[in-house]
Amino acid sequence: MPKKPISSNSHKASAQPRYHQSARELQPFGTVTSVMPLQLEEPVRLEMTEQLNQLLADTMTLRDLYKKSHWQVSGATFYQLHLLFDKHFGEQSEIVDTIAERIQLLGGISIAMAPDVAETTRIPRPPKGREEVPVQLSRLLDAHEVIITHCRELAELATKLGDPGTNDMVVSDVLRTNELQVWFLSEHLVDAPLVEAEPLRESA
User: Fold this and answer.
1) 138 falls in which pLDDT band (50, 70, 90)?
2) At what angle do helices 176-187 and 78-105 cross, to 10 degrees?
3) Average pLDDT for residues 186-199, to the nearest whole number?
4) Distances from the Cα of 156 to the Cαs of 66, 72, 86, 178, 182, in angstroms?
5) pLDDT score for 9
6) Is pLDDT at 140 greater than 60 in this prediction?
7) C-alpha dihedral over 122, 156, 98, 111, to 10 degrees?
């Protein structure tokens, strides 16, 4: 008589959802998986993921600062800036995904939750209330400066450590987008007449 196969798993399948589950973390934050066929040594990936998480936290903060500005902008340029801020928000959201995926690709863990981002970002927290347009623009430009400065430093470090993939992502996706957005914002701070041109002055 044939023997019944012995199952090593005593758990029986069920259609009943299993709620309130918990378990230990699969991988602690600040670590990278030990074996990755990327031809990048573990110390390099550790350094890159740490730097990228800082960039990610700052980018998530800038993204949310754009949404705050989009909701709270007011005044004569409301319509133009309302649309521009939302466009920039969407572009920063794409950058957030790009950076996070690069961290995971390198075997690391991407920062994700708002309290962790708030603890990590170097961009100052704005007030909860509405601010004047020039102040909103200045806040956004200051935040861009934090990110652009880090991008240049990180791109150089990635090249030095032999990680051209991170260099390319930082320059092509993050740096260039931030530079373009800075241009669009800066032009709104030019003190140019709205309805009457400056009169020509005769040369002496």
Assistant:
1) very high
2) 170
3) 88
4) 28, 37, 31, 17, 21
5) 58
6) yes
7) -40
Q: Does domain 42-187 have CATH number 3.20.20.10?
A: no
Neighbouring residues of 149: CB distance < 8 A, sequence distance ≥ 6: none
- Specify whether the CB–CB gap between 126 and 139 falls below 8 A: yes
The Cα–Cα gap between 185 and 173 comes to 19
Q: Are 73 and 3 within 8 A, CB to CB?
A: no
CB-CB contact of 30 with 50 (8 Å): yes
What is the DSSP secondary structure assignment for residue 80, as one 8-state letter? Answer: H
Tokens matching residue 181: 């957005």
pTM of the model: 0.90
- Three-state DSSP at 81 gives helix
Residue partners of 137: CB distance under 8 A and separation at least 6: 185, 188, 189
Sign of CA dihedral 183, 187, 189, 190: positive
- Alpha-carbon gap, residue 128 to 169, rounded angstroms: 33
- Alpha helices per DSSP H over 21-75: 42-72
Confidence (pLDDT) at 5 = 56
**Cα–Cα nearest to 69, from 146, 132, 142:** 132
Length of the chain as a residue count = 204
Express each pLDDT in 93-112 by its tens digit: 999 999 999 999 999 999 99
- C-alpha span between 54 and 30 (Å, rounded): 11
